[in-house]
Amino acid sequence: MTRVLNVPPGWPKPPEGWEPGPGWEPDPSWPEPPEGWELWVEADDDVIVGPAAEPGSEPRARRPGRALRWAVAAVAAAAVFGAGAATGVAAADDGVQQQAAAVQEDRSALEVERAELAEERARLEAASAELTEREAAVVAAEADLKSRDERLRTSEAAAAQRESDLAGVQASLDARQSELDGRQAELDSRTAEVAAREAAVRQASASGGSRSSGSGGSSDAAPAPAPAPAPAPAAEPAPPSSGNVFYQNCAAARAAGAAPVLRGEPGYRPALDRDGDGIGCE
User: Fold this and answer.
1) What pLDDT is recorded for position 227?
2) Which residues of the chain have pLDDT under 70?
3) The 3-state secondary structure of the chain, one letter per residue
4) 26: closest CA among 15, 36, 12, 37?
């Protein structure tokens, strides 16, 4: 039994006794073997395996009369098969080189694309970091704005409270001013009344002096002019009540019809003159 090449349809037949060398590969230009085709089979020494031998068919016996023709055909086929094999190896080498070049080119393109992706990733990370910083700045600005708004509201509330307090103080001042104005008007009225009473007293005193001097002198003499009113004396302790007249209080003086009691008049005493202006029980 010999292991021989079962040549598929469309392949050149190998020469007699041909054995493939190490690394032998079929010519890429040869057609693909049919599905399920076995390239290597075990056969008897007197059996030829070739394109006519289909799987499951009976092998054909070698004819002794055709040995020379088979030998010549074998040499020619060997030459053709060797040339085809060489061409196939060369073509296979060229294909391998082309594939290797294509793989190298694809690898280079992948490296370039990988570098571009790394750069793009770096740019995206930088943009993300910048966006994070901006978001943090926006959050801080919003917090600061909120704090300022709260302080402003607090200041406005404090200003409103101050305005309310000032309005209250102003109202109180206005009330006090009105009260003072009333007191001042009352004081002015009393001062005018006192001045009128003092003028009346001085006039009465001047009239009494004129009558006294007129009775003692010539009746034809002109009356002496009334003396100019003397300036009010400075406040000093009033003398004790003259005579036996004594008023327990101003009510008693008013009941006696003596109010107001002037300094020097019977019944006058400092206890009845609270403001010390010389007029008691005003």
Assistant:
1) 52
2) 1, 44-93, 208-243
3) CEEEECCCCCCCCCCCCCCCCCCCCCCCCCCCCCCCCCCEEEECCCEECCCCCCCCCCCEECCHHHHHHHHHHHHHHHHHHHHHHHHHHHHHHHHHHHHHHHHHHHHHHHHHHHHHHHHHHHHHHHHHHHHHHHHHHHHHHHHHHHHHHHHHHHHHHHHHHHHHHHHHHHHHHHHHHHHHHHHHHHHHHHHHHHHHHHHHHHHHHHHHHHHHHHHHCCCCCCCCCCCCCCCCCCCCCCCCCCCCCCCCCHHHHHHCCCCCEECCCCCCCHHHCCCCCCEECC
4) 12
User: For position 54, what pLDDT does the model report?
Assistant: 42
**Which among 228, 258, 231 is positioned nearest to 243, based on CA atoms?**
258
pLDDT at position 116 is: 95
CA atoms of 93 and 81, how far apart (whole Å): 18
Residue 206 CA to residue 213 CA, distance in Å, equals: 11
Residue 141's pLDDT is what? 94
Q: What is the pLDDT of residues 209-252, one digit of tens each?
A: 555 555 444 444 445 555 555 554 444 444 444 457 888 999 99
For residue 173, the model assigns a pLDDT of 84
Q: Quick one: pLDDT at residue 162?
A: 87
CA dist 125 and 128 (Å) reads: 5
Provide the CB-side half-sphere exposure for 140 (13 A, CA): 6
Q: What gap in Å lies between CA 15 and CA 19, rounded to an integer?
A: 9
* Its pTM surpasses 0.70: no
- Which sequence spans correspond to the domains of the chain? 2-97, 245-282
